[in-house]
Amino acid sequence: MAEFALDLNDEQKAVREWIHGFAADVMRPAAAEWDEREETPWPVIQEAAKIGLYSLDFYAQQFFDPTGLGIAMTMEELFWGDAGIGLSIVGTGLAAVGVLANGTEEQIGTWVPQMYGDANDVKVAAFCSSEPDAGSDVSAMRTRAVYDEAKDEWVLNGTKTWATNGGIANVHVVVAVVDPELGSKGHASFIVPPGTKGLSQGQKFKKHGIRASHTAEVVLEDVRIPGSCLLGGKDKLDERLARARERAKSGGERVKNAAMATFEASRPAVGAQAVGIARAAYEVALDYAKTRVQFGRPIIDNQGVAFQLADMRTQIDAARLLVWRASWMAASGKPFTAAEGSMSKLYAGEVAKTVTAQAMQILGGNGYTREYPVERMHRDAAIYTIFEGTSEIQRLVIARTLSGMPIR
Ligand SMILES: Cc1cc2nc3c(=O)[nH]c(=O)nc-3n(C[C@H](O)[C@H](O)[C@H](O)COP(=O)(O)OP(=O)(O)OC[C@H]3O[C@@H](n4cnc5c(N)ncnc54)[C@H](O)[C@@H]3O)c2cc1C
Fold first, then answer.
1. Residue 134 alpha carbon, nearest atom of ligand 1
2. Is pLDDT at 253 greater than 90 in this prediction?
3. What is the whole-number distance in angstroms between the Cα of residue 163 and the centre of ligand 1?
4. How far is the CA of 28 from the centre of ligand 1 (A)?
């Protein structure tokens, strides 16, 4: 197990510099255009694929970095470049993690490479869990998966919403109800292979921010998939359901939810994205405050402006420390006894929202225009208190973990 360290090692520093170069030279110049177009920036993803920055190999390498900081550092640098394009590049990872967490080795080997495609033919993947009536309350999910034993096929029906890359993905990972009596314990995850009949894109959302990332409904109408597309396999599912039914019957003790443990480990990565956006806006504001002259002196000469910048930087560094702590804990297998993963996402998300608003204020009228990037960064940051668990849900998880009480 790696010791917690604040110094990146030489290899990490080199990787960070390489990502920073791509973020500064390729993502930044393209950011405003794709934000306006509200479309997936395929040419930028392709550029990333050409240099190996959009590839299964690269993310696997960072994912298995024993210090835990590989993914955090990657996310911060990419989202420093641009959040909308950044999400288009890393959105596939959410689906890939869904397969890595629940799939068999064979399923991982078959499907994860198809999620990325290759440099000449890039693909993306989508993770579809949220539904119109099941956002924060995952147990209200209605999409059904029914097993057709005669054909060894699963049949999926329902409507998913808010799916990043939904409908344009090569591979969709869909969470569905297999036993409605068991609430969230009766859910399972499925692969919907490329070109499967019955899966279609519903409404594509026009969003406030991260507009270069595609977000849409996914409609599933009698989608038939082979039995082998149930992640983890039927035997494992049957065992899990039997245990859950047994516990439900005996009114048994609450078991630790495996999905919750996965979220604790993945939330710091989302926190790191928020840190990247906050740092980008802070840097623009700092430069601006040193050069913009009013009343015969740079505006940073006013404590009112300088102290804001001091607070912004302090909060960004604090957010990064929480993200790195939780990332290191996940990689070292340390239990999240105070929901440290949720803490990092909560704090970093809130900091991104506050810091980007302060940056806009420091730029005055310019901050409010699309001539300067902080307006976009502010819109992009707003999602970080909403997706991957809202700030309220993070607080709920932290409070329940700390107290052991079923706080509602
Ligand atoms: C751009 C974008 C991309 C997304 N990508 C994906 C994706 O790829 N895959 C996917 O499955 N989902 C995705 N989501 C869905 C996202 O995770 C949900 O929007 C989020 O979980 C919140 O659900 P909701 O929107 O239904 O809000 P609701 O759950 O309806 O919440 C509304 C408000 O009520 C509050 N609230 C709800 N319950 C409580 C409570 N118990 N205590 C206190 N406050 C509460 C919430 O905090 C929030 O402020 C995405 C969403 C967006 C906007």
1. 26
2. no
3. 12
4. 29
Its pTM stands at: 0.97
**Measured in Å, how far apart are the chain's first and last C-alpha atoms?**
37
Q: What is the pLDDT of residue 1?
A: 72
CA of 167 to the centre of ligand 1 (A): 20
CA–CA gap between residue 138 and residue 389 (Å, rounded) = 11
C-alpha to C-alpha distance for 18 and 184, rounded to whole angstroms: 41
Quote the DSSP letter at residue 8: P
Round to whole Å and give the CA distance between 65 and 56: 14
Per-residue three-class SS string for 263-277:
HHHHHHHHHHHHHHH
Distance CA 279, CA 272 (A): 10
Question: pLDDT digits over 142-169, tens only?
Answer: 999 999 999 999 999 999 999 999 999 9
Residue entry with tokens 């109800």: 177
Chain center to CA of 14: 24
Dump pLDDT digits (tens) for 194-248: 999 999 999 999 999 999 999 999 999 999 999 999 999 999 999 999 999 998 8
d(CA 247, CA 255): 9
User: What is the spatial distance between Cα 356 and Cα 309, in angstroms, rounded to a whole number?
Assistant: 11
Active site residue 388: yes
Atom of ligand 1 nearest to the CA of 164: 8
Distance CA 143, CA 160 (A): 8
Q: What are the contacts of 295-304 at 24+ separation with CB within 8 A?
A: 299/362
Q: Which residues line ligand 1 (CB under 6 A)?
A: 94, 127-130, 135-136, 162-164, 207, 210, 215, 383, 386-388, 390, 392-393, 396
- Whether the predicted pLDDT of 262 surpasses 80: no
Asked whether 112 and 99 are in contact (CB, 8 A), the reply is: yes
